[in-house]
Design a protein that fits this description.
The complex is a heterodimer.
Chain A (H helix, E strand, L loop, with lengths): L1 E2 L26 E6 L30 E12 L9 E11 L9 E6 L3 E11 L5 E3 L5 E6 L6 E3 L2 E6 L8 E10 L8 E2 L6 E11 L3 E8 L2 E2 L5 E5 L2 E11 L11 H4 L2 E7 L9 H13 L6 H11 L7 H12 L1 E2 L1 E3 L10 H7 L1 E2 L1 H14 L4 E6 L18 E7 L5 E4 L19 E5 L4 E5 L8 E8 L4 E9 L1 H7 L6 H9 L9 E11 L2 E9 L4 E4 L2 E5 L20 E2 L4 E10 L6 E3 L4 E4 L3 E10 L2 E10 L3 E2 L4 H15 L2 E5 L3
Helix pairs in contact in A: 3-4, 4-6, 5-6
Chain B lengths: L1 H17 L12 H8 L8 E15 L6 E14 L9 E4 L6 E9 L5 E5 L4 E4 L12 E6 L8 E10 L5 H4 L7 E11 L3 E5 L4 E8 L2 E11 L11 E5 L3 E7 L2 E7 L30 H15 L1 E2 L11 H7 L1 E2 L1 H14 L5 E6 L19 E8 L6 E4 L19 E7 L20 E7 L9 E10 L2 E12 L4 H9 L7 H5 L6 E9 L4 E11 L5 E3 L2 E5 H4 L4 H15 L3 E2 L5 E9 L5 E4 L4 E5 L2 E10 L2 E10 L3 E2 L4 H15 L2 E5 L20
Parallel strand pairs in B: 1-9, 16-17, 23-30
Antiparallel strand pairs in B: 1-2, 2-8, 3-7, 4-5, 4-8, 6-7, 9-12, 10-13, 11-12, 14-15, 18-19, 18-21, 19-20, 21-22, 23-24, 24-26, 25-26, 27-28, 28-36, 29-35, 30-34, 31-36, 32-33, 33-34
The chains are: A mainly beta, B alpha+beta.
Chain lengths: ~650, ~675
């Protein structure tokens, strides 16, 4: 399916214990509604196969299901002063189907919302035999992006249609126009990269006194691609072009094909109205939305403060945080501007439900009432945005609170995350870009990585008969993630335990217990029946460490990748295997110790004796979140050692 | 209309009068009383259903004498929130649109004595439409986020729904994930409509009659989801006479099968235009019936992309499917039916429900959409000729081949009777004017040869894992359908990425190509494919390779997880895997390798299953041949434990390793692709 740039709809992250590290909304149900449209007038600008592309063949493009002949987009603002007054976004695609599976490209999905409506659709197929087939007038369906069981109620939806009669050898062509009003938000332009793309171009049409801020990214890295711009009749047109792009193949760590493809991010600035010329402007725009809300009323404030006074907490601020966190549950109503604009604090407190920006607005009002310098923060929980990215409203999908700590720093509070403690934010927010929206200015900052105590310890105790006890301890930010599993179903907890095994085959998991030991420590215990922990053959007994020592996080990076590798939150994982001792039997082989480290990564193993038996310890560390591609050798070496240590074994002579 | 209103009033009143109501709803009105009522029942659950009451009244005989003129549902439910996680249950979700709701009342009783009352005006409507046409809007949900909910809050919901259709079982109570302290279901139905109700752990009161209506009452106490994960606490659905109905929607006629509610648009007015298909369907010009059948199937399967229609529940007409160039398996079946009929043959539809919904004849009938099962086409060459089953859902199958999961399945074979060509009906036709379908239950055949897969591989140890130097993995019949489909769809593309990983264990790198070696055999050809997970054990001077690394079983693991489900259902377990396989592995030895130990010859036989292994050592290599046969696809519940034991024994046997001793300092392997992982990202 071809997906046109999905227009951002303020997708929100909903938190639960089970989602902490995944931090994206579950895929919605596809809800389909048929819309019977009136007959489309023949006003399209479909160009047809002026050249039927005879040279575009399966032989020339082996393995390609389709070849994109022309992929054109144009965005035109309707008002020469105000970008938020509306814009029309038109796209035209022309492609050739080369294999049966390429017929899937005939399905086109267009992202819509309450602010974005479908203006016009035209589609046509040109058969190799000269037959021309037009889109039938009632061929557009709408798919609602709603899951009533997940408390996000939005007007996000897709218009979906099929270019008719797509067959191998046919040329398919379609045009889509949408109109967006109410925000200065603009879509990205993707130079589609999952198929060979002969020409992709995007044109921006706006008043000649506006500024454009742009960046073309390839493989996630900013390129030097520049547009060609012309000015005439008080307007300017800038066009970006990419020609003869080969298809990207396969997935790479942290980047899908779509993420690696060439992409244009841009925003525009108008001297006459609020717009997004720089990152801080996003915060200014948000502050403007919040400024229209009525302030928290005195009765509501007094009532909340009275209730909060009975809650745990060392300070009034902490108690107010607990009140909002615990009394306001997550329900998001994202309709029209509701994806961006919060509800009034009184409204949120009265009904005790709201989304992240509702909770943030309420908490900021309560804290400011205490004389605390608290501010809303826009943050991206789902996507990493490089510092060089052009500003975009859609970059942020979450809101939290920042409190000035008096030393020039911030204390971040996330009342949406129901399992977070005061002053702590979830792992998914660490290292993320954040805009602190103060009354006087907007501060572009980054959420700190944390206290440096983010650590897992995974202990396996293996008896002489092969019975296995798992005791894993999570510290720092991971403690909260682990503790969240206490309330999960037995099946879910079992799946979670299995994930600690690098090979889960035929393993029975029993007696799972999860307990929170302290605010930054949680434990999980389980009993496992793992067959073939010991292999016996040829008078030898082998203990296979690989069953426990994970090799799953080995990093694989494709050879053509040019972008830095995202390693994730800096962390330490300590894996320990205790093999019960057998009297009178000393191992004939112990894995040799390993100690390797670089600036970003480290692996250490050691073998020691203890009263309980032989103790094998492996420590893996990720010290930097990103690894430049120029340092990929470090990654390869790390991978080698992780892999090598996972296939090691302890060997005893079998005495019969 | 007066009669209808009278009937509704009569039945509603009578139904209520017949229902004893021992439960005191006021328990919900005081959170502390509610807490005591719950006591030690499900203390860890996020929320508990204190009470669920539902009264379903099917009123009057409508179309075909099987469609109720009206269905009335009264629902009462009180849910107590027990933890922060349970706050999600304070978002009341009613699985009907606001316009279907005759009334809605939500009252929240908070622990601090507050009370919030909400109604329809507070509700959000969320579209969950499954459109059936221009005027039938399908289903919507009405959502009321309850204000002020906290731990200990009791949310009491009452609503009345009035619709002119059946109510689907899963619409009656979507809260199947919560423990239920007490529940009651009352059904009032016309005598002539047979209704089946199954309620896990249910107690059934003797039914009573009232005129033409029957009143049935079911109760449930202290029900836990874990006890019966397969069932909703309330599982009710109508059992209908098999009937045929057509509906006129937006200028097109759509047919619907009732009973199993296969809403397959079998016929439409447009089918008469099937002449347009002639030019492109070789089936119509083939000279023999067999030729017509195989050509029609190949053409339909080959010419159409496998894609669902955008109109969710509607199966488009054959002509529309052909014109669009794509179709779901239901639509392709419909097109194939049309083509075969045009070619002078007499096809039938064969409907196979989703396997997870259980055997067809045992289970409760329920409403199904076209996409909750598979639709095949059966056609006989001549009066006494071979009957072909044509599996439109099986991409890559040849005519007569059934996808593995469609073999030996209970199915419903049917064809519309009474007339040739389209059924022309208007919007207000009566049921009696419509022809019935001819239908019967059948069991689809299985692969008569039950040929196993065979794999032959030459393996070598490299630092990163096992290198498959050369392997040919043969798939016979329908087993190879996915590969055959790949070869047909992407003739110039090697198998890679996710598609490749379906056929090898875990992460792999290298060349995998597909060869269709003859009509029934598909070969996956692997060259220099590295199985880059652990693959072996390194304990110098020893190298240890368990056979399970080469081709792992995870059967017992899956069965383990399935155990509770199978036991609860008391149903036969059905294997989703091939019936057996045969593997020939050749472990290539490096210079200086000494074989310390090899797996022993094994023969494990239990019940109808067997595992055999032969091991030979030859110059420069160790040869291992394994075979596994499962005697039955359907394992009765009482044979389940024995099967599990068999699989565990096999897994234990496959853990026996091949142990080599390598000279000190010798590399793990000679040859193979260079270990570029050490230097290149």
């Amino acid at each position: 399916m071809i997906r046109r740039p999905p227009l951002h709809v303020g997708a929100e992250v909903r938190y639960s214990a089970a989602m902490v590290s995944r931090s994206v909304v579950a895929p919605p149900f596809l809800l389909v509604a048929l819309v019977l449209m009136g007959a489309a007038p023949r006003t399209d600008t479909l160009v047809g196969p002026a050249q039927p592309a005879p040279t575009v063949t399966a032989q020339k493009y082996p393995g390609a299901a389709v070849v994109l002949l022309e992929d054109v987009g144009e965005l035109r603002f309707e008002d020469d002063r105000d970008p938020a007054a509306g814009h029309t976004f038109s796209t035209r695609m022309r492609l050739k189907v080369l294999s049966p599976s390429g017929r899937g490209s005939a399905r086109v999905s267009v992202g819509l919302s309450g602010r974005t409506s479908l203006v016009r659709v035209a589609a046509r197929s040109y058969g190799a035999d000269g037959k021309v087939t037009d889109l039938l007038p009632d061929s557009i369906a709408y798919q609602a992006h709603l899951d009533p069981m997940v408390a996000v109620y939005s007007d996000a939806r897709s218009a979906v249609f099929d270019v008719p009669s797509a067959d191998v050898g046919d040329i398919l062509e379609y045009e889509v126009s949408t109109r967006t009003v109410g925000t200065p938000e603009v879509p990205r332009w993707f130079f589609q990269g999952d198929s060979p793309n002969l020409e992709s171009r995007f044109t921006l049409d706006m008043a000649d006194d506006w500024s454009v801020h742009h960046g073309v990214f390839l493989d996630g890295v900013l390129t030097t691609d520049a547009p060609s711009c012309t000015k005439a009749d008080d307007r300017q047109r800038c066009t970006w072009v990419a020609r003869d792009q080969p298809a990207l193949r396969g997935e790479d760590r942290g980047l899908s094909v779509g993420g690696r493809a060439r992409r244009l991010d841009f925003s525009v600035g108008s001297p006459h109205a609020p717009s997004v010329a720089k990152w801080e402007d996003v915060g200014v725009w948000y502050r403007g939305l919040v400024a229209t809300l009525p302030e928290l009323s005195l009765p509501a404030r007094v009532a909340i403060e009275a209730q909060a006074a009975r809650l745990p907490g060392e300070t009034p601020e902490e108690r107010l945080f607990h009140w909002v966190r615990d009394q306001v549950r997550y329900v998001a109503v994202h309709r029209n501007i509701g994806a961006f604009k919060p509800h009034a604090p009184d409204e949120v407190s009265a009904r005790s439900w709201g989304d992240c920006k509702d909770m943030t607005t309420l908490l900021v009002a309560l804290l400011r009432g205490q004389g605390v310098a608290a501010h809303p923060v826009l943050i991206s929980a789902g996507t990493y945005f490089a510092p060089e990215s052009p500003p975009a409203i859609g970059a942020f999908d979450h809101a939290i609170v920042a409190v000035e700590d008096g030393a020039g720093g911030w204390r971040f509070l996330d009342p949406t995350d129901k399992e977070t403690a005061y002053g702590v934010v979830g792992m998914h927010l660490r290292g993320r870009r954040a805009l602190v929206v103060r009354p006087s200015d907007v501060v572009d900052t980054v959420v700190p990585w944390g206290a440096g105590d983010d650590r897992w310890e995974v202990d396996w105790t293996v008896s002489a008969t092969g019975a296995v006890q798992l005791h894993t301890r999570a510290y720092g930010g991971y403690a909260r993630e682990l503790a969240g599993w206490a309330g999960a179903s037995r099946a879910a907890r079992e799946r979670y335990v299995r994930a600690f095994l690098s090979e889960g085959r035929a393993v029975a998991v029993r007696d799972i217990r999860v307990e929170q030991v302290g605010p930054r420590e949680a434990h999980l215990r389980a009993r496992l029946e793992v067959p073939a922990v010991y292999l016996e053959a040829g008078g030898l007994r082998f203990a296979t460490l690989g069953a426990f020592w994970s090799s799953a996080d080995e990093f694989r990076v494709s050879a053509d990748r040019q972008t830095p590798v995202w390693l994730g939150v800096p962390r330490q994982v300590v894996e320990r295997i205790v093999l019960a001792s057998s009297p009178g039997r000393e191992p004939t082989h112990r894995p040799p110790p390993v100690s390797w480290q670089s600036a970003a990564l480290a692996v250490r193993t050691e073998v020691t004796d203890s009263p309980q038996g032989l103790v094998l310890t492996r420590t893996r560390e990720v010290r930097e979140p990103r690894l430049p591609v120029a340092r990929a050798e470090e990654l390869a070496t790390y991978t080698r050692w992780v892999h090598q240590t996972a296939v090691e074994s302890v060997v005893w002579a079998v005495q019969r | 209309m007066r009669g209808l209103i009278l009937g509704v009033t009569l039945v509603t009143g009578a139904g209520c009068a017949l229902m004893p109501a021992p439960y005191d709803r006021s328990i919900a009105h005081d959170p502390s009383v509610a807490q005591r009522a719950v006591g030690d029942f499900a203390p860890d659950a996020p929320a508990v259903v204190l009470r669920a009451e539902q009264r379903v009244r099917y009123v009057g005989l409508g179309n075909q004498h099987v469609i109720p003129r009206m269905t009335l549902v009264d629902t009462y439910r009180a849910v107590r929130i027990q933890s922060a996680r349970g706050l999600d249950y304070a978002n009341v979700v009613v699985p009907f649109g606001r316009r279907d709701l005759a009334s809605l009342s939500v009252v929240a009783y908070h622990p601090d004595g507050r009370r919030d009352t909400l109604g329809l005006r507070d509700a959000l409507e969320v579209e969950r439409y499954r459109p059936m046409g221009k005027d039938t809007r399908g289903y919507a949900s009405t959502i009321v986020p309850v204000p002020g909910a906290t731990i200990g809050t009791v949310v009491e919901l009452s609503y009345t729904v009035q619709v002119s259709s059946w109510i689907m079982a899963d619409e009656l109570d979507p809260r199947e994930d919560l423990p239920v302290l007490s529940a009651e279901l009352t059904v009032v139905r016309p005598e002539r409509v047979e209704l089946a109700v199954r309620w896990s752990g249910v107690r059934v009161a003797p039914s009573t009659t009232l005129g033409d209506y029957r009143v049935e009452r079911y109760t449930l106490e202290r029900w836990l989801p874990e006890e019966a994960p397969a069932f909703s606490p309330i599982d009710v659905a109508p059992r209908l006479t098999m009937a045929w109905r057509a509906t006129h929607v937006a200028g097109k006629s759509y047919g619907f099968l009732l009973g199993w509610e296969v809403s397959a648009g079998v016929y439409s007015d447009e089918l008469d235009k099937a002449i347009a298909l002639d030019a492109r369907v070789p089936a119509l010009v083939a000279t023999t019936p067999r030729g017509r059948i195989t050509e029609a199937y190949a053409r339909v399967q080959g010419a159409l992309a496998d894609r669902m229609p955008l109109t969710a529940n509607t199966v488009r007409s054959a002509q529309a499917v052909w014109d669009s160039g794509f179709g779901s398996d239901f639509e392709r079946a419909q097109l194939l039916y049309a083509v075969l009929e045009r070619a002078g043959l007499a096809p039938r539809f064969v409907y196979i429900p989703d396997e997870e919904r259980g055997p067809l004849v045992d289970r409760l009938p329920t409403f199904l959409t076209p996409y909750e099962g598979s639709m095949l086409v059966a056609v006989r060459e001549g009066k006494d000729g071979r009957e072909w089953l044509l599996d439109t859902s099986c991409a890559g199958c040849r005519a007569g081949e059934l996808a593995f999961h469609h073999q030996r399945r209970q199915a419903l074979a049917f064809r519309p009777t009474g007339k040739q060509g389209p059924i022309k009906v208007g919007a207000h036709e009566t049921a009696d004017q419509l022809p019935l379908v001819e239908s019967r239950f059948v069991v689809t055949p299985g692969d008569p040869h039950r040929r196993p897969q065979a794999r032959e591989a030459t393996l070598e140890l490299t630092p990163r894992g096992l290198l498959v130097k050369e392997a040919r993995w043969h798939y016979y019949g329908a087993y190879g359908a996915a590969l055959r489909q790949h070869a047909a769809s992407e003739p110039t593309a090697p198998l890679e990425g996710a598609a490749a990983r379906r056929f090898v264990d875990g992460y792999a790198e290298g060349s995998m190509t597909v060869e269709v070696t003859d009509g029934s055999t598909v070969t996956l050809h692997l060259r220099d494919v590295l199985l880059a997970r652990s693959g072996f054990i390194h304990a110098p001077p020893h190298v240890v390779v368990p056979l399970s690394v080469v081709m792992p079983f995870e059967l017992s693991n899956e069965l383990e997880a399935d155990e509770a489900r199978v036991g609860t259902k008391g149903r036969a377990l059905r294997f989703p895997w091939p019936l057996g396989f045969r593997v020939a592995l050749r472990f290539q030895l490096a210079a200086g390798d000494r074989v310390v130990s090899t797996p022993s010859a094994r023969a494990i036989t239990r019940g109808g299953a067997s595992y055999h292994r032969v091991v030979r050592t030859v110059a420069g290599a160790v040869l291992v041949e394994e075979s596994l046969e499962l005697g039955a696809e359907d394992v009765p519940a009482d044979a389940y434990a024995e099967l599990l034991t068999f699989l565990r024994e096999v897994e234990a046997a496959r853990a026996e390793p091949l142990v080599l001793e390598r000279p000190p300092g010798a590399p793990l392997a000679a040859g193979g692709p260079s270990p570029s992982w050490a230097t290149t990202p």
